[in-house]
Amino acid sequence: MPLIKAISRSVAAGTFGLVLLTTPAIAAAPDAPAPVAVGRPLPDVVMAGLNGPQRSLASYRGRPLIINVWASWCGPCRAEAASLERLAWGEAGSRYVVIGISTDDDRDAALRWLRHSNATVSHYIDSGPRWTLEHMLGASSIPITVLVDAGGRVVARFRGARQWDSVESIRMIERAFAGAGHPASTR
Questions:
Q1: What residues contact residue 44 under an 8 Å CB cut-off, 6+ apart?
Q2: Which CATH number covers residue 50?
Q3: Are 141 and 26 in contact (CB under 8 A)?
Q4: 161, 77 in Cβ contact below 8 A?
Q5: Which of 47, 73, 93, 144 to pair with 66, CA 20 to 30 A apart?
Q6: How does pLDDT run across 138-150, given as a tens digit for each residue?
Q7: 159 part of a folded domain
Q8: Does 184 map to a domain?
Q9: Is residue 18 scored above 60 in pLDDT?
Q10: Coil, helix or strand for 130?
Q11: 140 SS3 class
């Protein structure tokens, strides 16, 4: 396990005495690909399902996509989880598809958290040693939320936890899609 993940897990568990990180950080492999730049399309990859079957990223094209990268040991990730569910099932969320990507090393820990949180949106898990999704989404720290337009292009990245169903966050999401020239579609 990378040192930064180990420290982050200790912080989340409250067992680390000196906290230097404000959000859990994820160590990048030396040969890790760079994150996909804003305005560029995400490559198609098949994502391993956590609470459902595997699915290709390209299968989400045609609808704006909100991707949240998280881990079960990440306190800020856990704190924002319910607001992502409310966003997904609320009126504003009807314009988007919300999915989650776990960076947990332990698939069972990720599944336990999903069951505990009563997650209903689709969640997938990234895995080492390559951490393909983590790197291409730019998840050097978590939580991170990536907005992807209906054509599969990255529109924006938001680092840190938020109340995603708040009026401010919904406006921020809508401005990001509109500012990129790709207004949100409707169902």
A1: 56, 57, 58
A2: 3.40.30.10
A3: yes
A4: yes
A5: 73
A6: 999 999 999 999 9
A7: yes
A8: no
A9: no
A10: coil
A11: coil
For tokens 């730049």, the residue is 37
> Between helices 167-179 and 75-89, what is the axis angle to 10°?
80
**Domain that residue 77 falls in:** 3-179
**CA distances from residue 41 to 13, 25, 79, 164, 180 in whole angstroms, order as listed:** 36, 25, 29, 24, 13
Q: What confidence score (pLDDT) does residue 182 get? A: 52
Element containing residue 87 per DSSP (H, E):
helix 75-89
| Residue type at position 31 | D
Kindly tell me the number of DSSP H helices and DSSP E strands found in the chain: 5, 7
Amino acid at 110: A
Residue 72 covered by a domain: yes
Tokens matching residue 148 = 């992807």
**Nearest Cα residue to 101 out of 62, 79, 132:** 132
